[in-house]
Amino acid sequence: QVQLVESGGGLVQPGGSLTLSCVASGSAFTIGTMGWYRQAPGHQRELVATVSMGGSTTYADFVKGRFTISRDDAKNTVYLQMNSLKPEDTAVYYCHYRFRYWGQGTQVTVSA
User: Fold this and answer.
1) What sign results for the dihedral spanned by CA atoms 25, 2, 44, 60?
2) 58 FRET partner, CA 20 to 30 A, in 34, 42, 48, 64?
3) Would you say 13 and 110 are in contact if contact means Cβ atoms under 8 Å apart?
4) Are 30 and 43 in contact (CB under 8 A)?
C-alpha cells in the first residue's frame, strides 16, 4: 500500500502564495510519477501538474508560469509552489502517485 499525506493548504489573498507538500509512505512505494489534481465545488477533478521519476514536469495551461512542481526523493515528498493565486484557484488539492493512489486532499481558498 501507499499512503499520501498533503499539507500546506489554507486561506490566502489574491496574488498571494502557498506551498503544498505531499509525503508518501508505505511498503509499495517506490520512486515514480507524482503530481497534483484539484477539484472545485461543482467541478470535475482536473490535473494541475505532474513530475516524473526523471524530473520531467507537465502543467495545466491555467497554472503555467504561476505554479512550480518539484520533488525531493530523499524525503519521498512532492511540492507545489503556487504563486499569483487567483480566486479561481480555490479548490481541494489532491496529491497522486502513479495516478493510482491519492491523498485526502488539502483545501486552498483564495479570497480577499
Assistant:
1) positive
2) 42
3) yes
4) no
> What radius of gyration do the chain's Cα atoms show?
13
- Round to whole Å and give the CA distance between 77 and 71: 6
With the C-alpha atoms ordered 88, 91, 95, 99, is the resulting torsion angle positive or negative?
A: negative
CA geometry: angle at 14 spanning 60 and 91, to 5°? 50
Q: Which helix (DSSP H) or strand (DSSP E) does residue 85 occupy?
A: none
What whole-number distance in Å separates Cα of residue 72 and Cα of residue 77?
A: 5
Percent of the chain with pLDDT over 90: 92
22's enclosing H/E stretch is: strand 18-25
